[in-house]
Design brief:
Blueprint (H helix, E strand, L loop, with lengths): L14 H4 L8 H14 L12 H8 L3 H13 L3 E4 L5 E4 L4 H14 L4 H14 L1 H7 L2 H20 L4 H13 L4 H9 L1 H12 L7 H16 L2 H22 L2 H12 L13
Antiparallel strand pairs: 1-2
Helix pairs in contact: 2-4, 3-4, 5-10, 6-11, 6-13, 6-14, 7-12, 7-13, 8-9, 8-12, 9-10, 9-11, 11-13, 12-13, 13-14
Amino acid sequence: MPPRRTTAKADDGQPSQLLSPVNDRRVSALIVDQVRSLIHDGKLTPGNRLPPEREMCERFGVSRVTVREALRVLEANGLVEIRVGAHGGAFVTQPTSDRVGASIVDLLTLSSVTAGEVTEVRMVLELGIIPLLCGNADDDDIAALEDICDRQEAALASGEYDVSLSAEFHTRLAAATHNTAFEMLVRSFHGPLLMSLATAQKTAPEMGKRGLEEHRAILAAIQDGDAETGTRIMREHLSRTADRLCLEEPARKTTRTRKAVSSPAGAAPGSSRAR
């Protein structure tokens, strides 16, 4: 029988009044679930301090060891921060893209999600942000993206090019939309993006030069406010990654990817030349 979930009582709205007793063999997990639910419901917000351990023990009807175990799990999941000292305690944290990204990487590592499927997601996200970039990217964004391109060029010249530079460029593009949701989503996807690029590089160790040319062309289109050209170049750019993945991954997984990226609805098929 699955563990019984308990519900929080709002009472006077104070964190200590929101917690209710639990009674189960896996009590620490139930405490974690209850605190997580209160955070998701907005009853506990970033900066709120959870009750002291002794009070939590009384509220939940459990031992201090159990409460500490629950707090360790909450901290590991990035939901609370444990501070020491006179003004210490467990405080609800502000979610960060790094935390979300780590969770996504773990999910992809432990599941059957492929680098080809990551590229499918990139096609949806990165083609969609080009119009936003044309309208929202400012001088600081352009300068930051040009700096990444310059570092890519220097790395290629010295023979020290790494796919992390390409990932950095695409992540910085998302920041240039000045849309917090897009930026957090793409930053959270940074780890999977590196994984897909590294997989693609196995079939094209020379990758980098063509990618740099396309990065600069995308940047020029954004500066000109030319969303159509920027979208076309980005589609070709990502299509080549998908083609490499078709060589690296089983056909069962990548045939669908090739179709999705080469013939998106309402657009001409992208080029399949090596990046």
